[in-house]
Amino acid sequence: MITVAREPGWRLASARRAVALAVAFILACGSSARASNKVKLHGYITARVDDKTVQILDDRLETTPASRVFIQDGSGEHPMKSEELAVGMLVDAEGQWLDRHKFFAEKITVDLREGDKKVRGTAYLQEEPADANKIAAGQPGQLKLDGYLLEVGRNTKREWNVAKATASSAGGNVTAGQLAACHVKYTATLRKDGRMDAEQVDLEPPASADAYKMPHDIQVVRAKDAQTGINILEFRQGKKVQGRLKLLEERSVQEYVSHLGDSLLPAGAEGTSRPIEFRFFVVEDPEINAASLPDGTMLINTGLLGAIQNESQLAFVMSHEIAHVLQAHYKREVDETRGQRVGLTIAGIVAGAFIGDVGLFMAGMGIASVVNGHQRELENQADRLGLQNVIEHGYDPREAPNFSRLIINRYGDRTTSKLWSNHDSSLIRGSFLTIQLERAYPGRNWDGTKKNTKAFEDMKEDLGPVKIM
Ligand SMILES: [Zn+2]
Asked: Does residue 18 have a pLDDT over 80?
């Protein structure tokens, strides 16, 4: 989704679950759970306050000698000291709220995987690497990859055969010699300055063409409702219309969002022959969410536009979604978690009706994760790339975690909506963005970067009040 954040390991198991979980970029937060005694918090440690206290975004987690702290690994849970809790660790905390943003942790479980300094990663190049020739020649160079800047040194092991990676038999989707869209596997270590020292980089072919196709030969087509003449998006399978979404009528808003989306596409994203066509549509949907379909169609909900505060936030959300597409996350999920595409289970639509639940509809196509969020690893990758992209476009990246804060503070108390039934997502997202900013851009001063524009304010005015849930 746009950014929809979800629990780690979350899998789309069933349509029922999809409905229960359906949602937003940033989902809900914790306050709804604050009324009950036992509460769970899940997020990355963003700061250490003192010996007994760590912080996850704005929430302080206090421990006492009675608190139990464990590290979890493949072989189970092992006790550790609370002093060993460190920034960057992904933790699960059980306890109680003492006050607003003040939490007493009875038990903290650390999932160390995300705290490691050594990264083994895999990503598609989102643009043509400037130092491609140097890297191919065994010389030092830089490689922008996976939301990081990798320093490829003389000692970096490399499998970098351009002809082999771009041979037409491989993926058939790149022009010979052009590397944007190619796959790179790497091992690297994070440096103090936020760059990565690459130990190994391996260049591989791009994803196959069907990685960027909608499943079941579905086509997403802009159309007009025959009776009312209003603008809609149709999901067609052959001649059969499987679903329809209502587009926002305000043309100026559609144009603003399209413009912004185009301006955010990484250089070269369309220069390759990847079968992606980025198209940006504002759909009438009160959920604070956006979704990118495998073929580059992006759905921006009116609820998102209503809630979002400035252009930096929107640019981040859209950059995150663009990364989901360019990184072929839908295909990766099929490959890595489900093994095969699921069958089409859309019930069909009543004439003239619109899709009532987008999450359920996408689940019926087997792509619920575009709305509900992908696995944590893929969401984090989209966040890293999204941050890098907004920074390169001159935006203030602090607005990315600020959007998580907005959701937590503004909507966290709502318990009536299914959107807020899961308190994890905004906290995980906001805390991950916070540590990633500190990790990859340590000490950077963001004053003077772009936060908002007149075009955004004009869009908000044209949008007017919208329903948000
Ligand atoms: Zn996402």
From this structure: no
Alpha helices, H only, 35-179: 132-136, 162-165
Gap between the Cα atoms of 107 and 156, Å rounded: 42
CA distances from 265 to 123, 244, 262, 281 (A): 17, 27, 5, 15
**pLDDT, tens digit, for every residue of 184-231?**
999 999 999 999 999 999 999 988 888 899 989 999 999 999 889 999
Q: Are 427 and 42 in contact (CB under 8 A)?
A: yes
Residue-averaged pLDDT of the chain: 84
Total number of residues shown for the chain: 469
For the segment 380-392, the average pLDDT, to the nearest whole number, is 96
Q: Kindly give the distance from the C-alpha atom of residue 208 to the centroid of ligand 1, in angstroms, as a whole number.
A: 22
DSSP state of 459: H
Confidence of residue 20 (pLDDT cuts 50, 70, 90): very low
* Cα 330 from Cα 463, distance rounded (Å): 31
- Ligand 1 centre to CA of 374 (Å) is 6
Is 123 strand, coil or helix? strand
Give Cβ neighbours of residue 127 (< 8 Å, ≥ 6 apart): 144, 180, 266, 267, 268, 269
pLDDT tens, residue by residue, 274-314:
678 899 999 999 988 899 999 999 999 999 999 999 999 99
235 neighbors 199 (Cβ within 8 angstroms)? no
- 3-state secondary structure (DSSP) of residue 110: strand
Beta-carbon contacts of residue 86 (< 8 Å; ≥ 6 apart): 45, 48, 115
Alpha carbon of 403 to ligand 1 centroid (Å): 14
2 alpha carbon – ligand 1 mean position (Å): 5
For residue 222, give the H/E element and its range: strand 218-224
pLDDT band at 338 (very low <50, low <70, confident <90, very high): low
Q: How far is the CA of 335 from the centre of ligand 1 (A)?
A: 18
Query: Is 17's pLDDT higher than 60?
Result: no
Select from 43, 88, 80 the least CA-distant residue to 63: 80
Q: Is the C-alpha dihedral spanning 414, 98, 100, 77 positive or negative?
A: negative
What is the distance in A from the centroid of ligand 1 to the CA of 291? 8
